[in-house]
Structures are given as structure tokens and as C-alpha cells.
């Protein structure tokens, strides 16, 4: 976004003069060290905005947050081809301010940009068209830079060669000539030169010779925003990181990842690229307020100013102060947020989306980032997140980033694991070393060698094959590829952990092993080893294996350095094994290559079908409380990167095989269908539950191929597709297998490239179609890997051409999807602040301890991937940040922020909670009742019958069976005249206006969807003794302790006992043994915190199952994760069953918003 206000020139020239006269030294060297660039663009016209409408002053600049300041824009005199500077601003005042800035931070690099959207192309086109006019321009540049002591020039010639801006086709060539001549003139004086490039591929292709420009500039600003805006008829994000799966053609190029990858592919060095970050959003009017997704129909025009642009400051103030109920959502594929309210729709960037873009810049080793513009950030801290919340996030993410300039580009790695036992296979499956095509592999890894049981030294596992000359045959491959690296893999699944654990346990054992390896390599003349210890600390391993294995890798690396041997390490892609078994930061530094196994996430050992290697998690997995959402290639790769392994050392190990299953019922053949926990085998590999791609493709030979509905039927096999996982699968009779083909393998490689990873390994070369039996040539998968790596293009999520065009998860029950984001209505006494927190491993960057926020402030913070989290202020008004403890997956959560009415307080905080020590303790559970000010009593005919929870001023949450005419049999709501609600310390009894049962509520032994809302006739006025609990919009967190409420039925007084609880999978077995209880798919059970059964008596039904989803030592956010549904009826079956609230968050939100739409605030 580089458009200036119509009055830009007036202030801009004043800014330029002010900058030019600052007291810089005569040396104007460009930053060339290893520190990254954080370039801050300043809109010159922002100083002319009205007071209170984002008016910016040079006094507002915080130079500690920038390495470069770029003032936008100077103009171009069309007649004289010189820089045009006007003097209609207080240049002396600007001079004093800029001199003061430079005096405080002498290293600051201050430049001026010429051009911009309003300047257009006509003047530049004329100026660049001849040597005479170019020289006149260059002379004026030198004159002004020297006169005003600037550090350099930034050229923002936007849309060269575009007719819309009066450009000409020859602009592309002339631009390079201009830049070349400029650099030749500026270099002797030490001035810097940069150019800015627009983001759209068509504009780049027509107007920018990227490698030609890059050759003569210090930096190249990629303006990676303005991909979508009001000029389109559908909503779109201003700066999406990746494409959406539904986009096709050129639309798939309108994203940050493509633009950066395209520039790199065109030959721009990574160390010259500055990634552009947008501190503003784009606005739309929705054609239909009910359709508010990305890509929804939009009307021409916009809800704000003429250009459809809102600064981040304006966006956060809208969320805070306007009367609209704003919903915050996030486009998962494109990794960016948007908000909508009524017919208004705004796509923008927040700290989370900026962090992900910075992660991309760091992975690709770019030189730095730019911020457009610091005058659009919340530079005064008006939204209560401190000054410059986005710019501070950028600094926090870039703080530990350093780059090595002019480093040679590392060649790609294609490592081919070779199963040595494949030589013993039969018929077309028999594979010999001579079958390897060394032109397709940079590394050959002979698998496996092992450990001697007694000596714990390296030993051949197949001495017969070795004696027949296996290693000699491997070395012969060097005659065809002299650069090939040939190693052996030490370990493998069958070797287990026991021997490795013993070997790494002592320095003496490790030294003996290393010595044996060195002898082995000298004897065999091979190039190194790959450590393939599968699952350290597991399978007879020990907890200390993690540290000891890291020591082994370090010591091997030191021993291998003098002779120059290669050291590879293979690590599991499973999240639990990664966390517990591998010190990735140490391994990543010491090893030459780290192979990450992104397969065996699912297999015949499970009781349902699944692909060995999904690319992405499904929606269903995202809401589960276990690690299911991490069982995919993308998550595994992200985990290894987050663990500290450099991108240039990673090789993503792809499966050239399939894990197979035997179906329990032939008619249930969908993805996730029940199985017999076994699989079928192939004719060559002959391993139950495993077949090679060569066997798969033979099964799919083109005989008897026909399309049937939305599937393909090939030789009796039906080939289907899982859209969310991005993988195909096939089934025939009782056989089922997920597999890969050329198209999905290509997508996997592009996914790796999008993370900055250029290394691929395969398991294994002998299971590709190495003979070309299936008609697509020899080694179709390995050839596809090499082809994509050579092209080095970005991910393309077009569907594989041999799979159907729609998702085919037929007859699979879907769970209710949680809402994304929050809806908040701010009112008279409540302020709402949007904060942005840091990365997974850092404390929140924008939420420093000691920062003050007013009391009674609802503080929303976006943290960790796509989760929204509500954090509170203590009574003293001081912000205390959330502290990450056991890992972000366990803490990941979201609060559905309810609209607040009148004197709203923060949800989920008890009135008299302990300020020190653990919150969950016995004395803390005791009365007084107002420690839990949201717990209410439902009275039928003036006697307590059930429990409920206050969640908004007019709504209480309870169980559906509590508010029906006959609790156990009826699905009709009780008459509202028979029901009252008792709340607060004063025991106020309130009348009920309406009862809303969930529309799918079913009675019975296992009540389904047992949840209801009770609407009050008169809204509650919150006080110190009465305010709401939070409502869960995240998966139930089984690792967080909880409380429930035990109440006696029929007593007229308001009494209860607080019981410590925890979620327990083991209680399901006990439930199944109870004749009066049963779990439905929307329920869970729990036990006492110390284990054992808990007896909740009848009056406890409808009460909350509460979890404190914010760190207890900081503050409280007691959240309703469950509603007591089936209370125990006998002591022998004392297992309470709860309705899982987060599964119904869409229904709750819709109900609340319906009320808010009817409410008129005083």
C-alpha cells in the first residue's frame, strides 16, 4: 500500500527538507552487517490529519524500533526531470525533531522515497527514456542528498509499463538502466539505493526486470500487500500469506508466499529482499450480512474513506468503541484475521499474522522487513495495548534473527533411503543396488546397520549381503555421479531403543561406538552415517536418552570434522516423540542433515482407517484435546522448525509406500471407518499392513477404469479423496489404503519449499515404480521430487487429476464447529482493548509486566497460532502476562467473549480469590458463595431443582432436561411462570422470559445435546458479587483441573459444595457398566481430582464444569467447559456426565447475538 493523501506533496517536501538537514555524518554506509533490517515507512501526510483522527507527529517516532526510516514521498518535476520539493511546512520545526532523533540513535539510516501511487508512471517514464533526462535526475538526487545529509534514495516507481498509470512498454528496460546509472553515481558517495516492487504477478511480469534491478540496488522492498480491496466485488484479505484451496489461475498468485518465492525464483538474492508488512486493513460492504466469509459477495464502495483503507489504529478503535457487535474471525489457510459487523467487513493484519509472515522471512533468510506505515500503527497506545503494538511485535520477532550475507545458495538434497532387504524380494519387486539411478539422488542411505549386543559398536545386520559386495556396488555409483554421498543408517525400528540407550548412557560407551564408526568408514570407504535411533526414551528407553543422544550427536560431529565425514540424524515426526526424545536445537547445530519422518501417523495398529501421512489436520482433529491435530506433515515440519533446526539442514522424509487396513464392515469404507486392526500385504514387500507405491500403482493399472459418481473405479478399486488432509485413498471389498501419487508428492515438495526447506528424503527408493511397470516411466515419484525442486515453485493446492472433485467423507457424522474469534459489544462503563502477544516461545511482546490498563477493562489477546485468549487485569490495574508452561498445545484455548451490558465486569474471576499459591485448594472451595458469583439456582415451584451459570446479563446456561416439563421424558420446555432464578449474594429471585432448549435435544438414558439457555425478563446489573463465567470456544483441556458444584434437591436455601474434578478417559468404562448412565458423542465424564468416584446429587444437574484456562498464578478465567447432564443416581454408579459446551458454541453465540440485535442501550 503506497498511496498518499492528495495533500501529500505539501507535507512531504517539508518532511524531506527536515530529514535532509539532520546532522548525519558524512559517511552514508548501507547496513551490511548480520543484523536484520526493520525499515519504518512514515506517511508524510499523516501529520496533516485532524487531531483525534490519527494525527501523527515526528515526536511520535520511536527510533529504537527501526533500523531505517523512509519518508514517503518526494515528487518528480515532469519538465525538469528533477526531484520536486515544496516548502509549505514548518521545515525548521521538522529539522529540530529529526536532528534530535538522529542524535539519540546515530546508527539510524534515514532516506527519502520518491514516487508512490499518486505520482504514477508518466513522469518516471519520460525521465527514464533518455540518457540526458536520466543524468539530470541523477544530478538532482546527488545535490539533494548532499545538501540535506540524507543516507540514500528509495524509488517507488509503481506500475511501470502499465497504461493505467500512463506507462510505456519500454519502461521495464529503461528502469534497469536508470537504476544502474544511479548506483554508479551514488556508490562513491556512500549513499544507499533501494527500489520498491508491487506485489501482483502481472505487474511484476510487465514492469519489473527483477534480476536486473537486484543487481544494482542495496535492497529491494517487496510491497506484499494490496492483493485485494474495494476494486473487487468479493471480500478479500489485504495480505494473505498463502492461497485459499478454492482459488485458481492468477488468483493463486495473490499472496505473500507466492510473491517472495517468485522473486527468489527470478534470481533476486534473499539477502537483498525486504518483506513488506501492512499495518493497515482493507474495507468492504457485504452484499448479504449473513455471508461474511472470505470471498463473500461485496458491494462497490466501502464503509470508510474513499480508498477503502483503515489503519490498524482505526480498526482497533472500532472494535473498542463503536456500537456494532464486531465478530473476529481468522482465515485458516491464508493465515490472517478479519472482522465483520452488520454489512461492514475489514481484512487486516494483527500480531499473529505478522509473526507468521516474519517467520516466512526468517525461514527464507531474507534481509529484513518493512512496516507500512508506523503512522498507521497505534502509535499513541489509544487501544490500551501500549504504543506501537504491531511494530513492537515485529521487533520482538526479529530480535534474535541474524543473517550471513553473500552466502552461497545451498544445493538441494534428495536423500534416497534403500531397504537392503529388498534384494531378496521376488519377481518385479526384486531390487538391486544397480537399479538405483544416482542422477535422481544426492545421497544414498543404506538401511540398516545396527549395534552389537555386547560391545555396543557398529555391526552389519546382513553380513551375507555385505560379503557379496554390497558396499562395493554402492561405491560403483560414484562413477555415474561423483558427487553422490553414500552413507549407512544405524538403527531402524527393529533395533529398538534398549541397546542405544545403553550405548549413549556413558562417555566411555559413546567413545567406543564412535571409534568403531570411524574404523567402519575407513574400512568401507563410505562417506558417513545417518543415526536412525527410532523413538529415544520410548520402547525400553530411558528419560535421560534425550540428553544423552544429543551428546552422542555432538561428539560424533566433532569426531567427523577432521576427516570430513557426513552425519545425518533421523527424527520422528510424532509430536510426543519429538518433545520427549530429541533435543532438536543441539541436533540441528551438530548434524549435517536432519531427516524428519512425516509418515506412520496412522496405520493398521489403529482401529480406524487413516492415511500414513496427511498433509494438514482436519477440522475434527483441530478440536480434539489430544495430539491428533499434529499427526500431519505440515505440523511435524513446523515442530522441527520451532525446535531450532535450521531450514537448510532439514530433509523432509516422504513415504513412497502405503499403510493398509482391513475394514470391519465393507459398507463402511470412508476415511476414519472402523477396522480390524490389521492390514493387507503386497505381492513383493509381503509385510502385513504395508505396500510399496510400485504395488499400489500396479493395482491401479488402467484396465477397467471408469468414473462412478464422484469417485474413480480402477480394476475394482474405488479411488477417493480427503480434501482437508489433501490425500487420496482407495478401497475394494474389505481392503483400504491411503496412498500418494505424482500430484500429491509434488504438493508435498512444494509445501516443504513454502517453509524454506529444500531437502527431501524418501522411504524408500526401492518402493517407487523403479521398473516403469505402470506406464509413467521409471521412478515417477522420485522424478517428480527432482522436477519440483528444480523448479522451486510454491505450493499449489490444485486437486490431483486422478481423484474426484469433491470431498467424499460420506456418512460420517460431523461435530458442531466452534466459532472463530469473539463478539464484543462495548458499553458505557466498559472498554475493550485488543492486545497482540508474542510467539510460542516468548513472553507476550506487547504485554509487558507493569504496563497499566484501566480497571474494568476487557482485554482480548491473540496468542499462539489461531487461538484467541482472554486475559484479565488485576484490581491494581497492572497487566501481568500469561506464562507458558507445559507446552502451547495443552494451553491453546479460546474464550467466546459474550457481549457485555451496562456495568459489565470481566468474566470468570471470583470475587475473593487467593492472590498467592495454587487456586485449587480445599479451603478455597468453601463458602462464601460469592467466590463463584456466576452460579445460580433454578427453582421449580419455589424449590431448588437444578443449577445454572450466568454467562450474559440476560442468559443463564443449564441442562435442557432441567427446564422441561418432565425432566427425564419431555422435550417441551416448562412454563416460565413455574421457573425462577436465584442469583447473587442477596439471593435475588428473578422471573424468566423464555427457555431455549437446544433444537436437537433428545431425552433418555443418554440425553443428547443436553443444553439450554434461560432468558431473564430483566437484565442483570453486574457488581462485585455478580458477574459471568467465561464460555469455552476451545476443545476440552483434559490437563487442566476443574471444579463442579454439588447441590441438594428441593431445599429452599441456596447451598452448594464445590468439588475438585478432572477429566478422565478411564471413567468411560465405569459409565458403560452403569445401567442408568451412558455417554453420547457430545458428552464426557470426570472423576475426583485425587482419582476415584464423585457423587453429584440430583440438584447438581445443569451446573457448570469449570476450568481455569488462564495461568492461576497470574489471574483467573473460570470457563464453562461442561454442563452437568446425567447426575449419579446410585452410590455404585457415582460417575458424573457432562455436556461438552464448546461443541455448542455456534448455537450459543447465535442466541446471544440475536438478543443483542434487539437490545437498545441507554
UniProtKB/TrEMBL annotation:
Residues covered by the GH18 domain: 36-401, 412-792
Keyword annotations from UniProtKB, A to Z: Disulfide bond, Glycoprotein, Glycosidase, Hydrolase, Signal
Signal peptide start and end residues: 1-26
Entry GO terms, CC: extracellular region
Cited InterPro entries: Chitinase_II/V-like_cat, Chitinase_insertion_sf, GH, Glyco_hydro18_cat, Glycosyl_Hydrlase_18, Peptidase_S1_PA, Peptidase_S1_PA_chymotrypsin, Trypsin_dom
GO biological process: carbohydrate metabolic process; chitin catabolic process; proteolysis
Start and end residues of each Peptidase S1 domain: 919-1153
Pfam families according to UniProt: Glyco_hydro_18 (PF00704), Trypsin (PF00089)
Single GO MF descriptor: chitinase activity
This protein's name: Uncharacterized protein LOC108681358
Source species of the chain: Hyalella azteca
Amino acid at each position: 500500500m503506497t498511496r498518499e493523501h492528495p495533500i501529500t506533496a505539501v507535507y512531504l517536501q517539508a518532511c524531506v527538507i527536515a530529514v535532509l538537514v539532520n546532522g548525519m555524518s558524512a559517511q552514508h554506509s548501507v547496513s551490511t552487517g548480520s543484523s536484520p533490517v526493520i525499515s519504518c515507512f512514515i506517511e508524510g501526510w499523516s501529520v496533516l490529519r485532524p487531531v483525534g483522527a490519527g494525527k501523527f507527529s515526528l515526536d511520535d517516532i520511536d527510533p529504537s524500533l527501526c533500523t531505517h526510516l523512509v519518508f514517503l514521498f518526494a515528487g518528480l518535476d515532469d519538465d525538469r526531470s528533477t526531484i520536486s520539493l515544496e516548502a509549505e511546512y514548518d521545515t525548521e520545526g521538522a529539522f529540530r525533531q529529526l536532528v534530535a532523533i538522529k542524535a539519540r540513535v546515530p546508527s539510524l539510516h534515514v532516506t527519502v522515497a520518491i514516487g508512490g501511487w499518486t505520482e504514477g508512471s508518466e513522469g518516471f517514464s519520460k525521465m527514464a527514456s533518455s540518457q540526458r533526462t536520466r543524468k539530470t535526475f541523477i544530478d538532482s538526487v546527488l545535490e539533494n542528498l548532499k545538501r540535506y545529509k540524507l543516507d540514500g534514495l528509495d524509488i517507488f516507481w509503481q506500475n511501470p509499463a502499465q497504461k493505467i498509470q500512463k506507462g510505456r512498454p519500454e519502461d521495464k528496460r529503461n528502469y534497469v538502466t536508470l537504476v544502474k546509472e544511479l548506483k554508479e553515481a551514488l556508490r562513491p558517495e556512500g549513499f544507499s539505493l533501494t527500489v520498491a516492487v508491487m506485489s501482483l504477478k502481472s505487474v511484476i511480469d510487465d514492469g519489473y526486470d527483477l534480476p536486473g534491478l537486484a543487481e544494482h540496488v542495496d535492497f529491494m522492498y517487496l510491497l506484499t500487500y494490496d492483493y485485494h480491496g474495494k476494486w473487487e466485488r468479493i471480500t478479500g484479505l489485504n495480505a494473505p500469506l498463502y492461497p485459499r484451496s478454492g482459488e485458481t489461475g492468477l488468483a493463486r498468485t495473490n499472496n505473500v508466499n507466492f510473491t517472495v518465492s517468485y522473486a527468489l525464483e527470478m534470481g533476486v538474492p534473499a539477502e537483498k529482499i525486504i518483506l513488506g508488512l501492512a499495518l493497515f486493513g482493507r474495507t468492504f460492504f457485504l452484499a448479504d450480512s449473513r455471508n461474511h466469509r472470505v470471498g463473500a459477495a461485496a458491494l462497490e464502495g466501502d464503509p470508510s474513506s474513499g480508498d477503502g483503507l483503515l489503519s490498524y489504529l482505526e480498526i482497533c478503535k472500532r472494535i473498542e468503541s463503536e456500537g456494532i457487535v464486531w465478530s473476529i474471525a481468522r482465515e485458516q489457510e491464508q493465515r490472517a484475521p478479519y472482522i465483520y459487523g452488520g454489512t461492514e467487513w475489514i481484512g487486516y493484519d494483527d500480531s499473529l499474522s505478522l509473526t507468521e509472515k516474519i517467520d516466512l522471512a526468517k525461514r527464507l533468510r531474507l534481509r529484513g522487513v518493512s512496516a507500512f506505515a508506523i503512522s498507521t500503527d497505534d502509535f499513541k497506545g489509544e487501544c490500551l495495548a501500549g504504543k506501537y503494538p504491531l511494530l513492537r511485535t515485529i521487533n520482538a520477532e526479529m530480535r534474535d534473527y541474524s543473517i550471513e550475507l553473500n552466502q552461497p545458495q545451498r544445493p538441494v538434497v534428495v536423500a534416497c533411503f534403500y531397504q537392503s532387504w529388498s534384494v531378496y524380494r521376488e519377481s518385479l519387486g526384486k531390487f538391486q543396488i544397480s537399479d538405483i539411478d544416482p542422477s535422481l539422488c544426492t545421497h544414498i542411505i543404506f538401511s540398516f546397520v545396527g549395534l552389537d549386543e555386547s560391545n555396543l559398536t557398529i555391526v552389519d545386520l546382513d553380513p551375507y549381503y555385505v560379503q557379496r559386495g554390497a558396499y562395493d556396488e554402492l561405491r560403483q555409483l560414484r562413477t555415474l555421479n561423483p558427487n553422490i554421498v553414500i552413507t549407512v543408517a544405524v538403527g531402524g525400528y527393529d533395533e529398538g531403543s534398549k541397546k542405544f540407550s545403553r550405548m549413549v548412557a556413558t562417555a566411555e560407551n559413546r567413545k567406543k561406538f564412535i571409534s568403531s564408526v570411524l574404523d567402519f568408514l575407513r574400512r568401507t570407504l563410505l562417506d558417513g552415517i545417518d543415526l536412525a535411533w527410532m523413538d529415544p526414551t520410548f520402547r525400553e528407553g530411558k528419560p535421560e536418552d534425550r540428553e544423552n543422544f544429543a551428546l552422542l550427536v555432538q561428539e560424533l560431529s566433532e569426531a567427523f570434522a577432521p576427516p570430513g565425514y557426513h552425519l545425518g540424524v533421523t527424527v520422528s515426526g510424532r509430536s510426543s516423540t519429538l518433545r520427549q526424545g530429541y533435543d532438536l536445537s543441539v541436533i540441528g547445530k551438530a548434524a549435517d542433515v536432519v531427516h524428519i519422518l512425516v509418515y506412520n501417523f496412522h496405520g493398521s495398529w489403529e482401529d480406524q482407517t487413516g492415511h500414513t501421512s496427511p498433509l494438514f489436520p482436519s477440522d475434527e482433529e483441530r478440536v480434539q484435546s489430544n495430539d491428533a491435530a499434529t499427526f500431519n506433515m505440515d505440523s511435524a515440519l513446523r515442530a522441527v522448525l520451532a525446535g531450532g533446526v535450521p531450514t537448510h539442514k532439514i530433509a523432509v522424509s516422504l513415504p513412497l509406500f502405503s499403510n493398509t487396513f482391513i475394514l470391519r464392515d465393507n459398507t463402511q469404507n470412508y476415511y476414519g471407518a472402523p477396522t480390524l486392526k490389521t492390514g493387507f500385504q503386497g505381492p513383493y514387500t509381503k509385510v502385513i499392513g504395508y505396500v510399496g507405491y510400485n504395488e499400489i500403482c500396479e493395482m491401479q493399472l488402467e484396465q477397467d477404469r471408469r468414473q462412478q459418481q464422484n469417485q474413480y473405479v480402477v480394476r475394482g478399486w474405488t479411488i477417493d479423496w480427503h480434501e482437508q488432509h489433501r490425500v487420496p485413498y482407495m478401497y475394494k471389498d474389505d481392503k483400504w489404503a491411503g496412498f500418494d501419487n505424482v500430484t500429491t508428492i509434488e504438493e508435498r515438495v512444494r509445501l516443504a519449499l513454502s517453509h524454506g526447506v529444500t531437502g527431501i528424503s524418501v522411504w524408500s527408493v526401492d518402493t517407487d515404480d523403479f521398473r516403469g511397470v505402470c506406464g509413467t516411466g521409471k521412478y515417477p515419484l522420485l522424478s517428480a521430487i527432482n522436477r519440483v525442486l528444480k523448479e522451486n515453485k510454491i505450493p499449489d493446492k490444485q486437486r490431483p487429476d486422478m481423484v474426484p472433485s469433491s470431498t467424499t467423507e460420506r456418512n460420517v457424522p460431523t461435530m458442531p464447529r466452534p466459532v472463530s474469534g469473539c463478539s464484543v459489544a462495548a458499553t458505557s462503563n466498559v472498554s475493550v482493548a485488543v492486545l497482540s502477544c508474542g510467539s510460542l516461545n516468548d513472553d507476550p511482546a506487547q504485554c509487558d509486566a507493569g504496563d497499566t490498563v484501566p480497571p474494568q477493562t476487557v482485554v482480548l489477546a491473540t496468542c499462539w497460532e489461531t487461538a484467541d485468549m482472554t486475559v484479565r487485569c488485576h484490581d491494581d490495574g497492572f497487566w501481568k502476562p500469561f506464562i507458558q508452561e507445559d507446552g502451547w498445545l495443552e494451553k491453546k484455548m479460546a474464550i467466546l467473549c459474550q457481549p457485555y451490558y451496562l456495568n459489565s465486569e470481566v468474566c470468570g474471576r471470583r470475587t475473593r480469590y487467593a492472590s498467592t499459591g495454587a487456586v485449587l485448594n480445599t479451603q478455597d472451595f468453601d463458602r462464601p458463595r460469592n467466590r463463584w458469583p456466576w452460579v445460580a439456582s433454578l427453582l421449580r415451584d419455589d424449590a431448588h431443582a437444578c443449577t445454572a451459570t450466568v454467562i450474559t446479563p440476560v442468559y443463564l446456561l443449564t441442562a435442557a432436561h432441567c427446564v422441561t416439563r418432565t425432566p427425564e421424558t419431555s422435550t417441551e420446555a416448562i412454563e416460565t411462570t413455574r421457573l425462577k432464578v436465584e442469583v447473587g449474594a442477596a439471593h435475588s429471585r428473578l422471573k424468566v422470559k423464555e427457555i431455549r432448549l437446544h433444537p436437537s435435544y433428545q431425552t433418555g438414558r443418554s440425553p443428547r445435546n443436553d443444553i439450554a439457555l434461560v432468558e431473564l425478563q430483566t437484565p442483570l446489573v453486574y457488581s462485585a458479587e455478580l458477574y459471568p463465567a467465561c464460555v469455552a470456544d476451545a476443545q476440552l483441556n483434559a490437563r487442566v483441573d476443574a471444579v463442579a458444584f454439588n447441590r441438594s434437591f428441593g431445599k429452599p436455601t441456596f447451598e452448594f459444595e464445590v468439588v475438585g474434578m478432572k477429566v478422565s478417559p478411564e471413567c468411560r468404562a465405569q459409565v458403560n457398566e452403569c445401567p442408568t448412565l451412558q455417554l453420547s458423542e457430545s458428552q464426557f465424564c470426570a472423576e475426583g481430582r485425587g482419582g476415584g468416584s464423585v457423587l453429584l446429587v440430583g440438584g447438581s444437574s445443569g451446573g457448570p464444569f469449570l476450568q481455569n484456562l488462564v495461568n492461576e498464578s497470574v489471574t483467573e478465567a473460570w470457563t464453562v467447559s461442561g454442563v452437568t447432564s446425567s447426575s449419579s443416581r446410585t452410590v455404585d454408579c457415582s460417575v458424573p456426565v457432562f455436556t461438552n459446551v464448546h461443541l455448542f458454541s455456534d448455537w450459543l453465540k447465535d442466541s446471544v447475538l440475536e438478543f443483542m440485535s434487539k437490545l437498545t442501550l441507554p
